[in-house]
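dumping this here before i forget
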Amino acid sequence: MILPEGCIFLAGGYNTGAMMLQLREQGGKIAAKTLLKLGPAVFGSTQQTPIFFDGHLYGVREKDKQTGVP
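structure:
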């Protein structure tokens, strides 16, 4: 997911977690700086794609999803 200020948010499922990178030009090349890493217990996205809305990231963690119809 592409965010403002050259940031990219990456989230994976199956115990991979998530991270945010910031891309910037450095000496004629693009350099990536890691801004944050989140372990799978904090955030991951197996099938539900996170969204960026009104300056915030929202996502559904696998362990928090609801199954079935209430």
